[in-house]
Structure formats: structure tokens, C-alpha cells
Amino acid sequence: MKDLFSIAGKVAVVTGGSRGIGEMIAAGFLASGARVYISSRKADVCEATAARLSAQYGGECIAIPADLSGLEGIQSLRKQVSDREDRVDILVNNAGASWGAPIDEFPENGWDKVMDTNVKSIFFLTQKMLPLLRNSASVENPARVINIGSIDGIKTPSFDSFSYGASKAAVHHLTRQLASHLIKENIIVNAIAPGPYPTWMLSAGVGFGGETEGVDWGSVGKNNPSSRVGTMEDIAGLAIFLSSRAGAFTVGETITSDGGSVACS
After folding, report:
1. Confidence of residue 210 (pLDDT cuts 50, 70, 90)
2. So where are the chain's domains?
3. What is the mean pLDDT of the chain?
4. Is 164 noted as a catalytic residue in this protein?
5. Per CATH, the architecture of 11-257 is what?
6. Is the pTM of this model over 0.90?
């Protein structure tokens, strides 16, 4: 029982890991003894985050910048990971995008960008990572895939982000479909649907201009049933559960991490 939640020594890949929820999960994994690869589009930001997390948590965090909205970037990430590792124990598909506009003005490129980044990339990155995941997978210790959805894929979004909510609902259903196929290969797929967290995306939506430090998150949290926004411990704790022996019999689920937002809606 003492190792029930252990992920020590595991190799994890976290997309969109340079900030927000991806960074929080990467930090939790590092603190728990995993070796973590993070990816994001901006090389300088990705490398700075990897260096900071490595120093802060004493682990090994490696930056691999990549644009995962297309197959070229997906193939590049897979190759760079496979050049360094012969297995991946945990894949966290967190990279995401949003777009807001009134319904009469919502553009096609806003729709396509969100769907490509939020849905297509999850399927094809998981597909390309399968050889590395299979190298890790066993009955006793399955490999894990965690897709980051959203409560906006469960309930009506607060913002005019029409493609975002639809994309996250697709992520939840894709999670179940992938899980039904890959559990036979000892690869467990689940999803997390976060609610309000102190991220760049939510900051931009509530008028903080993308700032996550030095802004009044309490004013956002007071509108949530739990009277707060989420923390690193909340999202990383759930991801660690899903990645450890404790979560090895949980398959194809979408678990909310929202302080009661969906339950009380």
C-alpha cells in the first residue's frame, strides 16, 4: 500500500507543458520522481519552464518544442522522444487552444485551429506514441494516456467559444473509444475535465489579459461552489492517481476537477 500512488521512475510526456494545467501536472510528476518531457509551440518558453521545474523539484524535465496542430509537429515530437527513450509510461495530451467570437462572426479558421489542436492532435499523437506506450505496457503495470478535456465539454460554456466546447466534448468521447481499443493492449486511457484553474486561457477569458500572477483569482473562485479556483495539487493529484497503481482499474472515464461546478449546474 505504501507505493499505491507511486510513479517514481516513470517516463512521462506532457503536451502543452510550458504553462497552465500542463505545467502543474508536469510539476506534480517531477515532485513524485518521474522523468518528464514537456512540449509547447514556443521554444524559449518551453525551455525556460523545463529549466525552472528541474531546479525547483530536483528532477529531470526536458523541453521538446513542437506545434502539435499538424502531423509534422506530431512526428517531430515522437521522433525526439524515441531518440531518447525506449518507452513512454504516461502520455498527457494537454495541448489546447480556444477561440472566442459572437456566433454571427465566428470564423472558419477559429473553428479549424481549435479542432486541429484539441482533437486531431490527441488522436494522432497517441497513435504515433503507441510503439513507446506498448513497450511500457504490461498487465501488472499498464501504460497510461490522460486526455485533458474540460467542463465546457459537459455543460454549456460561459463564453462564446463555440468550437472549444464542441472540441472538448469530442475529447471525452474519443477517450472512451480509445480506451475500449487500447485496454486490450494494457494501455489505459482516461480524461480529466478541469473547471476553473489559474491559467492563461481563463485569465484571458475573464479580463485579466492572460496574466496568472498578481491578479484577483479570488473574485473568480467566489463564483464556484467550492469558493476557489483549482491548484497544482488538485490537478496533479488526480493525474498521479490515474498514472499509478491506485488508478489501474479506472478505464475510459472523464473525471471532473472543478470544485463542484458541473455537479451544481
Report:
1. confident
2. 11-257
3. 96
4. yes
5. 3-Layer(aba) Sandwich (3.40)
6. yes
